[in-house]
C-alpha cells in the first residue's frame, strides 16, 4: 500500500477542523444571502484557451484530459484557478435568463500549481461575491461591496481587520500625469510594496526619473481613514482627468463606507494595486490584524470589461474571500475552535443487543425533534460506553432503565437526571457544535 | 469570443435551480448530522495508480497535470470518480487521529468521462455517508444505514421511494452451492436484470446449465417486504455455508429495518448485485417510484476489505446519494421548486441618491435581525423599482417617507402597511426561500 501520503498543497482537514470550516462557510453563506446574493456553482473545468485569454499565461494551470483520451483531444480542458473567469463565462452563457444587476456568490474549490507555502495551496477554497450589470453599473455598488466585506468579517468574529480601498484610475491617471509611458510597469512594482517596502523604488521602469519616483513613492504612502487622502494626492501637484475621475470615485466609496461600516475598519490606501489585469477602478484588500504577512484574505475590485458578448458589456464589482488562507491561520494559531468535535449530542447507551431495536426507535424520535443522536456501537459495560462518548466529546449519555424510565447523564458534570423522551432537550448551547474563540475566553 | 457553450455532461444550474439544490443539500447535511456523521472533504485529486488499483481500469478517469509540467510528471494525478476510494485513503492516512467506529459524510463533486445521458453526468455531486470500524464492525450498522436512507428520503419529501436490500453472500453462496465456478460472471449478468429483464439468462456464463439457470433466475426474482424471502430461498434447495451466513445477515438487517423504517419502503430484493467489486455483504439500492428507469439514486453496501494498512483492516458500510441524478429528475419534471428565486426578502426603495446612505444604514439594521435586504439599484420612479422587485420575485418593497415614517408593500397582494424598522418581520414563510412541491400543491 504505497502512496498513502499527503500531497503538498492539497490540504485536508480532520473532522474537528472541518467543523470549524463549516461554521466559517455558514457565516459566509448567511452574510451573502442577507445581502441578496444568489448562490451558483460553475463546473470545475473550462476550455484551456478560454482560461488563458486574459493575460493569465504565467498561471500554473492544471490541464485535465481523460486518461483513455486520444492524443488529439489532450489538454482541451483545465481546472479553473479562480471563480471570476468562469463566472464571466456563466453570465454570457445565461445572460438571457438572469436579472441584472445580478448578485451572485460562489463558494468552490480552485486549483493553481504554485509552489505551496503557508497559506498558499494548490487546491483552495474561495468564496466570491460579485454584482454584475448589463451595460452599466453605478459606482455605489463599489461602496456596497465594502459594506459586505465589513459585515463578513464582523460576523466571522475572528479578530480585528482592515479593509484597504484604492482605485486603479488614481494611480493610472497619476502616472500618466507624470508623463510615464509604462504605467503597468510602475503598478507591478508598487504591487510589491507590502512585501519589500521602499525597495520597490529600485524596481520602477528605467524611464522613471528621480523626481517622478519621489512622487510615485509619496502617492503609494498615502493611507487615511477619512477623506483627507484627496487633498494629500492633490498636494503632490500632478494633474490628469483620469486622476480626477479616480479620486471622485474613491471619495464616493469612502464616504459611504465610513458612514456605514464599523469605525476604523476602512482605509483609503493608495498603494493597493492588485496583480490581476482585469480591474479597472475600485480595488480592495483585507488584512487580519496581526497577520499582515499572510497577505490579503479578501480581495477584489471593479472590472468594466471582463465579459462582453459583442452586443453588451457586463461590468462588475466583487470580492473573493480566501477561505483556505483564513483557515490556515485560524487552525495554526488556535484562533477558532468548536465546542465539540462531533455533531452528536446524545449517545443512547445499549444495555443488551436485544434492546437495540428500542434504541433505534428512541433515536428516531429524538432526531425528529432536531437532536443529533447515535446509538451506542456495542452493548458493552456502561462505563465503556460512557468512555466512548467521552472520547468523541458527545456531551450526553442516555440510559433506558429496565422499568422503561429514562435518565440522561451530562458526562462533563456527571449530573444524571430523569428525562422524558417526548420533551427532553439539551441546553441550547449544546444542541449543535458551535464556533469558539479559545483566546478570547481565556482573556 | 468563441467557446461560450455548455460542456455536455457538466451541468450548471440557474440561480433558482441552485436554490432547489441548496435546500436538498441542507436536508442531506441535517440528516447526516442528526445521525451523528461528521463532515469531511477530501482533495479532488488522487495518485492515478491509487485510483486504479481496485479493478477500476475501465473507468473513464480524468488525468490532471500542470500544463507547464515536465513530460516526466505527466498524469501522476487524476480526479476522483467517487468518494469511497479517497475516503479509504483518508482513513489510512489519519487512522491515529480518528475515533472508531468513525462516522463521516462527504458531499462533493466527482468526475467520470462516461458518455453523458439523462441523469448521468461527467461532473456530478455525490453525498456519501459511511461508518468505518477498525478490525470489526458489527452487522447492526448495516441496518442503521437503511434507517439513514429512509430518513433522508422521508425528509427530502420528493415522492415515494423503495429501498432494496440484498446481501452479496446470498448470491455468492447460492451460486457456489450450485457448483458454479465463475460466480462473478453470473453476478455481472444478474446486475442487468433491471434493464433487460429475463434476457440476462442468455448472458450467464457458458458453464451454467438449464437447471442451474432456472434456479439463478428464481433467486433473482425473490422480492419481499417481510422476512419470507428466507423460506423462499431455502425452498430452492441449494445449500452452502456462505448462503446461510448471508441469509442470517439479511434477515437481521431486514428485521431492524422493518421495525424502524416507515411501512413498505424497505424491500429484500435478491436481484440487487451492485457493479463495484469491493462490496462483500449487504448492498442497497434506492429507487424513486415512477422513476425506476433513472436507476438507483442512493446505493451502497458493506465492504470488509477496502482499506488496510497491514496492521489493521477497516471494514465499512455506507451509501452514496446521487444528488445530480436526483436534481435532474426534480428539475425536468418540476417535482421540486422554491417559493422564490432569490434570497432577498425586502427591496429598500430609494427616493433619490442622496437617501442611499440612510438606506444602507436601514439595510444593515434589518440584516442584523436576519432579514435579507437589497437596496434598490437606482433611484428610478417607484413604479420601476417595484417592477425590479417583481421581476426578481422579491416579495416586499420598503418605502421611507419624507417625514421619516416607513411603509412596507407586499407586492404580491398589493397591501401596504406602516412598519417600524426596529421590529418589523416578514411572515415566517417569507423569511427565506423554501422548497415547494408544485404537483402536491396542485392536487
UniProtKB/TrEMBL annotation, chains A, B:
One term of GO molecular function: ATP binding
Top-level division of the source organism's lineage: Bacteria
Chemical reaction(s) catalysed: tRNA(His) + L-histidine + ATP = L-histidyl-tRNA(His) + AMP + diphosphate + H(+)
InterPro entries: aa-tRNA-synth_II, aa-tRNA-synth_II/BPL/LPL, Anticodon-bd, Anticodon-bd_dom_sf, His-tRNA-ligase, HisRS-like_core, HisRS/HisZ
Keyword Transcription regulation listed: no
Residues in Aminoacyl-transfer RNA synthetases class-II family profile domain copies: 20-343
Transmembrane annotation, as ranges: none
Compositionally biased residues, Basic and acidic residues: 429-443
Key words of the record: Aminoacyl-tRNA synthetase, ATP-binding, Cytoplasm, Ligase, Nucleotide-binding, Protein biosynthesis
Biological processes annotated in GO: histidyl-tRNA aminoacylation
Region (Disordered) residue spans: 411-443
A single Gene Ontology CC term: cytoplasm
E.C. number(s) listed in UniProt: 6.1.1.21
Binding site for L-histidine: 82-84, 112, 126, 130, 274, 278-279
Family of this protein: Belongs to the class-II aminoacyl-tRNA synthetase family.
Subunit structure: Homodimer.
Name assigned to this protein: Histidine--tRNA ligase
Organism for this UniProt entry: Epidermidibacterium keratini
Lineage: Bacteria, Bacillati, Actinomycetota, Actinomycetes, Sporichthyales
